[in-house]
Amino acid sequence: MTTQPLRIGILGLIHDHVWDHLPQLQHSQNAELVAAFDTNQPLRERVESEYGCPTYASVKELFASHELDGVYIFSSNQEGADLALQALNHGLPVMIEKPMAASLAQAEQMLETARAQELCLMVNWPFAWWPQMQHAVNAALAGELGTLWQVKYRAAHAGPKELGCSDYFCEWLFDPDRNGGGAMMDYCCYGCVLASCLMGAPASILASGGAYRAEPLGVEDNAIIVMNYPDGMATAEGSWSQVGKLTAYATAIYGSQGTYIVEPQKKGRLMLATADQSEGVEVKVQCPVLSLQTATEHFAHCVRTGETPWALCAPETSLEAQRILEAGMQQLHRR
């Protein structure tokens, strides 16, 4: 197994999350940025200036110019899936930003191709690297809360532009074809993947949402998906119009023997309530091993060892979330 840093190419710069991952590559001993592709010259110039790497306006030109060990994809949901297929068919492992694709058909084709090529396909979920989220998910899967009967997640902010998202990002977020929807696709996806990871495929779903902002964005700006299970339920909420941060990015996991509340971001707490400690106590969470600290370190580990990505980032989990999202969007369109 090679100890040389993985040579990573970036495909797409129009998803703003890319600017969180480039510093990871810059500081990692296990992966390095080799080249980047995007059709927008200002974004190429920014990467060249800040990271000193060559950039290309053509994926084929990048592939022809560099030997790579893997690619990161930060494009629109629709175009990102196409880029993933190009990379997989070129023999390259892929890390793609959540949710996975703009449609279920695209997601299914990605997983089918990765399996056929025997390549790593990892879907990055930003909350997957919160230590308290990792602890809660692993403990819940191990049965420490008893039988799970409900999972809740709410992702919310005042809106992409209000949050400071770039024009490149907003342009495709507000395009139902390139995004696959609006707030439902962008933000309900988190609750869907969490429920898929912890409770599996739902028996049925119920979705609702609409455009409730004073100035509509052309897509739904608020949505909720209720997932029904034989012995429980889960909810995924997404909002692009919430004032303030109260309840935003809050996670609740309910079991027959206890309840977890997962506070957001890497410094958030993990709280546990039981019959004996009904008010809840903080669970002390250990710092994860290096391979679980960032998406870059985890992808490098999986590519090198052949291990599958951990539960939240496994493509099978994201495929199930994509199936739920597509059913939700179909219900929304019928309203």
How do the strands and helices of this protein lay out in sequence?
Blueprint: E1 6-11, H1 18-27, E2 31-37, H2 41-51, E3 55-56, H3 59-65, E4 70-73, H4 77-89, E5 94-97, H5 104-117, E6 121-124, H6 131-141, E7 148-156, H7 160-163, H8 167-173, H9 176-179, H10 183-199, E8 204-210, E9 222-229, E10 232-239, E11 250-255, E12 259-262, E13 270-273, E14 281-283, H11 295-305, H12 315-334
Parallel strand pairs: 1-2, 1-4, 2-3, 4-5, 5-6, 7-10
Antiparallel strand pairs: 7-11, 8-9, 9-10, 11-12, 12-13, 13-14
Structural features, described:
By secondary structure, the chain is α/β, with parallel strands linked by helices. The chain has helices at residues 18-27, 41-51, 59-65, 77-89, 104-117, 131-141, 160-163, 167-173, 176-179, 183-199, 295-305, 315-334; strands at residues 6-11, 31-37, 55-56, 70-73, 94-97, 121-124, 148-156, 204-210, 222-229, 232-239, 250-255, 259-262, 270-273, 281-283. It has 2 domains: 6-126, NAD(P)-binding Rossmann-like Domain (Rossmann fold, 3-Layer(aba) Sandwich), CATH 3.40.50.720; 128-290 and 321-334, Dihydrodipicolinate Reductase, domain 2 (2-Layer Sandwich), CATH 3.30.360. The chain is built from 12 helices and 14 strands. It is globular.
